[in-house]
Design brief:
The protein has about 475 residues and is of the alpha/beta class. It has a 9-stranded mixed sheet, sandwiched between helices. Strands 13-12-15-16 form a 4-stranded antiparallel sheet, with no helix packed on it. Helix 5 crosses helix 6.
Length: about 475
């Protein structure tokens, strides 16, 4: 329920919006126990106990001030998750979501993967999940794949989280971890870059982990979407065109100049925030380029400096050198965002002198959607290894249990696990599907594996007081 402060701030939005990160609405929506969060995981197909859940979490629903793509005041929405009764200073974490076109299918309305913020907070992070401009409670058209507004909206919600922590006397340790998938991967690099190049006196990125993002908008991703071949998500093309027209202008004066009939009439109304991408895709031909007017197509491909190409280049996010470590996640069978975005970006950054870059192919078989789970899971494991959980003199975190598995890789079907006395052991694949459970009552357990496809798997060991996860390769 909105309080009087919220109502006043919403009424005076033009006054407050000049200060980026100003809280306009802060509604404490729920308190989640670790058991509540474990239930949320199970409801979303993630096995119980696969992730450590140590703290209760307060969930704040936020409306906050941020600039629009033209630098004018507007507002955006999102969620902030604050862990409870944590004795140590905590890191900040932000998760940046993938493509959405319907305003109500967003974090502000508790849709899709909002529970990930609760998971991160329950394991000791102050977590934020922004909706970006034009989605959630934010007005107007979402500037899709616009790097700068993705970054400003994400950073301003981090400012909100910092304010909430100050108000509630929650200590932060100065670390910041950023991850996102698909459009969120693009937004991750945009946000990391803006902080490093423009806001290094305010935030320091500890590490980022973009997943399957269209980092090379003007090259590899454009080649995939604009090819004269069927494309799995044809609605991406008009979304980008209408978005960039709203940001940059000058592409056309009338929809009929860029879209052939009937798409000049049928497509634009679908981007008013009331239709999801499935509905938009159904209104498109399988080959998205067929919606483009031949005259516009000829003008575009004959001019390397066409305004739309310049806009695409302006939203490439690969041409810089990250100071902090970056872990790129991708799958080679991705049918929506070509993995060549990642290969090209890593090679380019490394060629510029970047030293802390790594890329992990999570699968040669998983689709774009299926690749998200292992990408996010391993990113969290990677982040956890860098977190400064407690300063000297503070009790160490008893919830972390080292897990040692051997031999690794496994070749004979038998896996040995240390640090079990007693414990419950689970084996899961990278999509979170549980494949085996076993109770161990000795210090070192032998686990006979079921018939498995060669690849990487997760082993989770859970005692009454602690939990840990290890990775094992089966050959």
């Amino acid at each position: 329920m909105k309080n009087l402060y919220t109502i006043c701030c919403l009424a005076l939005l033009p006054v407050f919006a000049s200060a980026q990160g100003t809280i306009i609405e802060d509604s404490l929506m729920m308190h989640l126990t670790p058991q509540d969060i474990d239930t949320l995981l199970a409801q979303n197909g993630i096995p119980s106990g696969i992730l450590p859940l140590d703290y209760g979490v307060d969930v704040h629903r936020i409306v906050y001030a941020t600039p629009d793509p033209h630098g004018e005041p507007t507002y955006a929405s999102g969620l902030v998750f604050v862990p409870l009764e944590v004795e140590c200073p905590m890191p900040l974490f932000t998760y940046l979501h993938g493509t959405k076109s319907m305003k109500m299918q967003t974090f502000y309305y508790f849709h899709d993967e909002w529970f990930l913020g609760a998971v991160m907070a329950s394991s000791g992070y102050v977590a934020t999940m922004p909706d970006y401009i034009g989605l959630g409670y934010s007005p107007g058209l979402h500037p899709y794949q616009h790097a700068r507004s993705e970054a400003t909206a994400s950073i301003d919600l981090l400012r909100v989280a910092r304010t909430i922590c100050t108000q509630e006397e929650v200590a932060l340790n100065g670390q910041l971890f950023i991850t996102g998938y698909s459009q969120g991967g693009h937004a991750t690099l945009a946000t990391h870059r803006m902080i490093q190049e423009e806001l290094s006196d305010e935030f320091t990125v500890t590490a980022s982990a973009p997943g399957s993002g269209p980092y090379d908008m003007s090259g590899n991703q454009f080649d995939m979407v604009a090819a004269m071949e069927p494309y799995s998500v044809p609605g991406y093309l008009p979304y980008v065109i209408l978005s960039y027209q709203s940001v940059y202008g000058g592409f056309f004066d009338d929809y009929s100049e860029v879209f052939v009939s009937p798409y000049d009439v049928t497509l634009p109304p679908l981007f008013n925030g009331e239709y999801d991408m499935g509905q938009i895709n159904e209104a498109m031909p399988e080959i998205p380029r067929l919606i483009i007017h031949p005259d516009y197509e000829e003008a575009f491909f004959s001019d390397p400096n066409h305004p739309f190409m310049l806009a695409l280049r302006d939203n490439d996010v690969y041409d810089w050198v990250p100071d902090a470590p970056v872990l790129f996640n991708y799958c080679t069978s991705d049918q929506e965002v070509t993995y060549l975005n990642t290969i090209f970006t890593v090679d380019h950054m490394t060629g510029l002198g970047a030293e802390n870059i790594q890329a992990e192919n999570r699968s040669d078989e998983l689709s774009h959607y299926e690749c998200a789970n292992p990408s996010l899971l391993f990113s969290k494991v990677w982040f956890d290894g860098m977190v400064e959980w407690c300063p000297a003199g503070v009790a160490e975190d008893a919830a972390a249990l080292p897990v040692e598995v051997y031999p690794n890789p496994v070749t004979d079907g038998v896996l040995h696990i240390s640090n079990t006395m007693p414990a419950d052991i689970t084996l899961s694949d990278l999509s979170g599907r549980m494949l085996l459970t076993q109770r161990a009552n000795t210090a070192n357990a032998a686990v006979v594996l079921p018939s498995l496809t060669p690849g990487m798997y997760l082993v989770t060991v859970r005692t009454d007081a602690a939990q840990g996860t290890g990775r094992v390769v089966v050959q």
